[in-house]
Amino acid sequence: MAIYSGDSNLDEQIELWLKWDRNAQTLNEIKELLIKKDFPKLSKRLLERLTFGTAGLRACMRAGFDSMNDLVIIQTAQGLCEYIKEQYKEEDYKRGVVFGFDGRYNSKRFAELSATVFVQNKIKVYLYGHMVATPFVPFAILQKHCLAGVMVTASHNPKEDNGYKVYWGNGAQIISPHDKNIQKAILDNLEPKESSWRTDMLTRTELLEDPFEEMHELYFQTLRTHIPQKYLDVNQQQKEQGNIRFVYTAMHGVGWPFVKRAFQIACLPNLAPVEEQKEADPEFPTVKFPNPEEGKSSLQLSIKKAEDESISMILANDPDADRLAYAEKDNETGVWKVFNGNELGTLLGWWSIENYKGLHPDVDMGECYLLASTVSSKILLAMAEREGFNFIETLTGFKWMGNRAIELMQQDKHVLFAFEEAIGFMFSTAVLDKDGISAATHLATMACYLHATEGLTLTKKLQQIYQKYGYHCTNCSYLFCDQPEVIKRIFSRLRNFENGQPGTYPSSILNGEFRIKNIRDLTTGIDTAQPHGLAILPVSSSSQMITFNFENGLVITLRTSGTEPKIKYYAELCAKPEEKDWGKLRTILDRMVEAIVEEFLQPCLNNLKPKAD
């Protein structure tokens, strides 16, 4: 073995990269680092390896085993392929695996490399011939009874990133043990086969099929069947009258043609698209972050379009169209309100019940289920207690909600809706993942119906829901931290809070003014609210997540992001219906959150950068 750095581990990985990589650009990147003798950077790139996180793989596109590039994609596809061959019989191979890709740099290339690996292994492949919205992959898995599926996307991450989102044959994102087993299979199949690079063979194989036309037709047919005829009639009436319209932005992603078609099929008013952002553009030229979750900073062009055309409602997808944001103008004050994910989850959750009753008038609500992640609003719980349906909480991420929905469906239960505060919504079970296209369609249908029948805006409807079920105010945000050791230190301090004593957590904030009732730590498995002191939800030592329940009803969760260098916090104060001083509750919430951030996270000491908005 050649000696480059003197570190035998690093030298071995350098040699393997030089031997294995066939992409001239990434191969030269490593060679240039070698010429510069930049061994710290080579160590980072080559001694660390991408692992499956919250959303599969997601990282910067560049050379290195810790990044997204041709070689890592081939290794990943080879591992995934071998695992699928272990899990299924050879006669099942004809069921196929589906691959989709978004409009980012290299997305199509990564999908084609993956497809090549599977075809070379005699497994049928459904490779979308056009870029698609992420929901089209899990949708196709269910429709075609596929073995698995992959969407190549980094969703709303910066333009430098890409990702690899894996779904199992049940149509939901992979959870344990699949994720760990796939990771092991990747490590057992690191050497790229000569045949894995031969994407040219995709033009000559009968094992490859483009499902686009069939799935496009089926998706919109299915979407329409999930809307009662009476709501379609109202949509058509509002469209003809022309007194309700929506601005739409695809955020330089794939959403526009899909949402446009969805609105046609649901008889909704024609959209006014933000022209500068409606076509897929991997540069995301008009936004700092292509993430509608960022609030007004990401919706500036949408607001300008709405003002220019006297429209008071804005719908926004993220670049892979699996999330939905919504903003509404108060025509009395002229102020725009950007709804947060919990507010949209409240509205869509309420509407999912009305919608389901419209489709199934004799439904037993005791057989119906609505889901939310543990860091999302508890408003659906308050609604469930009064309306007689069931509410279930899962870990963060749609991989948990999708798989939980499948378990319920296997027990002949009706899953109406699931949501997470990060503007992700699953309306019906046609797609067992968040779907920004169907969410936009149902939200717009709700807006048309409320406007036509009660003269209500969504802001007013939200207030009505709070009046009935209790005001739920939230304060969710994040702080940037790109140093893993700092994050580890912050959470370690919270677990050793009293003079460094292990297993001791904070007991109050603001010098004892607000006392903590119980603590749940899903990193270590502690839950002081349980009789046995152990957490009920799944525990993961590889991610940080602590929830503090205060005596006054405030709940706050601090956790690390699975896809970005952030510490996130999610706080909610749940009031009873008789508590009407919402302003006072909001003030208490904001004061407590400010204190928690200062006392628990110590942003100045730890050099944590706040969110832009």
Task: Report what the structure shows.
This protein has 613 residues and is α/β, with parallel strands linked by helices. Among the domains are: 48-216, Alpha-D-Glucose-1,6-Bisphosphate, subunit A, domain 3 (Alpha-D-Glucose-1,6-Bisphosphate, Chain A, domain 3); 471-610, TATA-Binding Protein. 38% of the residues lie in helices and 19% in strands. The protein has 18 helices and 23 strands. The strands form 4 sheets. Strands 16, 17, 18, 19, 20, 21, 22 and 23 form an 8-stranded antiparallel beta sheet that branches. A hairpin with a 3-residue loop joins β14 and β15 (424-427). α1 (8-20) crosses α3 (39-47), α10 (255-265) crosses α15 and α12 (341-359) packs across α16 (458-469). The longest helix is centred in the C-terminal third of the chain and has 20 residues, at 582-601. The mean pLDDT is 96.
Summarize the structure.
With 613 residues, this protein is of the alpha/beta class. 38% of the residues lie in helices and 19% in strands. Helix 1 crosses helix 3 and helix 4 crosses helix 5.
